Amino acid sequence: MCSMPCRGVEKLPVQISVYYFCIFKSISSKAVQLTSENLDDHLGNYELVFMNFYADWCKFSQILAPVFDEAADHVMNKIQDPGKILFGKVDCEADSSIAARFHITKYPTLKLLRNGKLTKKEYRGQRSVEAITEYIQSLLKDPVKEIKEHSDFDSIQEDKKTGILYITSIDQREYGVFKKVAMDLQDDCQFFVITGELAKYHLSGHRRIVFKPAKSKLGENDKLYPLMDIRYDELSAWMTNHCIPLVREITFENAEELTEEGLPFLILFHHKDDKESVKTYTAEVLSQLSADKGSINFLTADGDKFTHPLHHLGKTRKDLPLIAIDSFRHMYIFPDFKDITVPGKIKQFVNDLYSGKLHREFHYGPESTAKSSRDESLDMSQKIQSDPPESSFKKLAPSRNRYTLLRDEL
């Protein structure tokens, strides 16, 4: 029993409070409490880290707590492999900096890291010991399929992006590196290893790792890994660039997933059949903005479908193609799509978002006239009128008021 009153218990039915929260608080678990002091050490030492972001006062967090801890015990008892899996708990009130780092806006939130990298999706499966245990075990399965005979080539799906390793035996060190990269990217690519006699011909030509684009046959448009020495960091970067394109299309189906990444959007709105503007936009992003990949998402959107954001910007389909930034607070329009090919123009537009210049100029006009525009005599109605449109795509993100613990699981 709890020796002191449990915070937030008065918000729960008595039977839930006593069983799920107070009693369980006194039971030890193999789940580790993560803090600002120990977080980075733990993240770097485990292949998988499954994290429960919670707040003690939240009744949903209270209900999930014993389930998470019991699932940790189940998994850790089955997987006796140091460095394989860690169940970690973060008290978001005690360690608010960690919550901010992982963009936590609701409790409880369950997130997964593979090899120190945050996966794109948070866990939204059933909150039960059995479901969580099954989920973690599925993540630990080898995502690489072995091809030993010619008939096995039929398992390579032509419509999927594919990474292939040619090696004499999976006992070699290189296979472990390839498998690690495959675990990171298994949601975006399929992975195969070709061994034995089938691999010898390709190995003689120094063709050790290849990437097969989607909708192509093996050998048609393959990209060859340029390095002979296979190391994790280099291979991960190379394969990520091929599996996850720099410019992606946003749809109503994947919008929530993209917003979960927590990065602003640079979006090209175009007509459905307008391939030329997409081609131009993609080329200029690759040329001018590749270094910004980790701080902004580059997207294209069918402007014939996403009419609401255009209306928000005061635009219609007649104004397509156009480029805009959605910062998840406001939306800003790139003045003229044709200027995207002017060296440095689109780069400066993105830099102006980071520096706050876009926001300032929407409030006060161009910086050359900013001083006069900031005159205190400017009435409030003028200030409100000059505000940039609010973010449109944040409304497609998971609700800040919707708990990840589903109502029918209570």
Order of helices and strands: HEHEHEHEEHEEHEHEEHEHEHEHEEHHHH
Please give the share of residues in helix. Answer: 25-40%
Low-pLDDT runs = 1-26, 369-386, 400-410
User: What is the count of DSSP helices, taking H or I runs of 4+ residues?
Assistant: 15
Outline, from the CA principal axes? globular
Biggest sheet strand line-up: 1-3-2-4-5
Question: Distance between termini?
Answer: 23 Å
Number of strands: 15
The quaternary state of the protein chains shown equals single chain
Determine the structural class based on helices, strands and strand pairing: alpha/beta
What would the average pLDDT be, to the nearest integer? 82
Strand content: 15-25%
Largest sheet, in brief, is: 5 strands, mixed
Integer-rounded radius of gyration: 25 Å
Give a brief rundown of this model.
The chain contains 15 helices and 15 strands. The chain is α/β, with parallel strands linked by helices.
Task: Please give a structural write-up.
35% of the residues lie in helices and 16% in strands. With 410 residues, it is α/β, with parallel strands linked by helices. β4 (109-114) and β5 (117-118) form a beta hairpin. α1 crosses α3 (59-78), α3 crosses α5 (129-139) and α6 packs parallel to α8 (232-243). The longest helix is centred in the N-terminal third of the chain and has 20 residues, at 59-78. It is globular and about 60 Å long.
List keywords for this structure.
15 strands, 410 residues, five-stranded mixed beta sheet, single chain
Set out the fold topology.
Layout: H1 14-25, E1 32-33, H2 39-43, E2 48-54, H3 59-78, E3 85-91, H4 96-101, E4 109-114, E5 117-118, H5 129-139, E6 144-147, E7 162-166, H6 173-185, E8 190-194, H7 196-204, E9 209-212, E10 223-224, H8 232-243, E11 247-249, H9 255-260, E12 265-270, H10 275-288, E13 297-302, H11 307-312, E14 322-326, E15 331-333, H12 345-355, H13 357-364, H14 370-373, H15 380-385
Parallel strand pairs: 1-3, 2-3, 6-8, 7-8, 11-13, 12-13
Antiparallel strand pairs: 2-4, 4-5, 7-9, 9-10, 12-14, 14-15
